[in-house]
Task: structure prediction
Amino acid sequence: MDGVIVAVIAVAVIFGAKRLPEMARSIGRAQGEFKKGVAEGHRDEPAEQPQDQPAAPKEPPASTGDSSASK
Result:
């Protein structure tokens, strides 16, 4: 907690009190753009399907032939 206070005071001294609100707005806008871009990227991704596993072999259709052949 003490380090955060020292960092804020150091930034205020280096950049001046007049530029702090401008910097905070810029950081907020950049963060909003970043979040929007991440959300847009997730929305545009196609659904991933596993490529490692081979396709399961298809089974032949169940036979509905005569029941007399099994006697």
Remarks:
- The chain has two helices and no strands.
- The mean pLDDT is 77.
